[in-house]
Amino acid sequence: MAAKEAASGTDFVLTARTDYILLRPADGLSAAVRRFQLFAETGADCLYAPAVNDPAILAALVGASETPINAIMGRNDTVAGLGAAGVARISLGSGISRAVLGFIRDCARELLDQGTMTFADRQISHPDLNAVFARRELSRP
After folding, report:
1. Per residue in 63-105, pLDDT tens?
2. Closest by alpha carbon to 32, among 70, 1, 74, 5?
3. Taking the CA atoms of the chain, what radius of gyration do you get in angstroms?
């Protein structure tokens, strides 16, 4: 409750997390539901169970609480699919940073193996980069 009180009057979203499903798959759902209920009672704005993107489990969590549920979007998930399960908030976890690191690795391989940099064809333009830093909308290629 202290965290909720400290965030009062701000745009801060207090997200409560339980790892029961991740750590104890056999009995994790019922324990997670109970934790979610307790978190909601103490004022959590959003509830989160990591590594859960099974639509049936997400739907069960959503059905057990009026508090919005957060899920991390996996490689095989879609925004529409998570929304259909009732998820109200989607996180990307490390997905974007790992994709960038994969791109950097591929760039290095191209430089080393072919001595070329065709990867530069996908770079962001200077005006678009300036717009990002100026917090303007990014234009589409």
Report:
1. 998 999 999 998 899 999 999 999 999 999 899 999 999 999 9
2. 70
3. 20
Closest CA to 44 of 22, 72, 66, 29: 66
Angle (CA) 69 74 78, round 5°: 75
Domain that holds residue 115: 95-133
Structure pTM? 0.74
**How many residues are there in the chain?**
141
56 and 110 together in one domain? no
Pairwise CA distance, residues 43 & 15, whole Å: 10
Residue 32 shares a structural domain with residue 47: yes
Shared domain check, 126 and 101: yes
DSSP letter for each residue of the chain:
-HHHHHHTTSS---EEE--HHHH-TTTHHHHHHHHHHHHHHTT-SEEE-TT---HHHHHHHHHT-SS-EEEE--TT--HHHHHHTT--EEE-TTHHHHHHHHHHHHHHHHHHHTS--GGGGGPPPHHHHHHHHTTPPPPP-
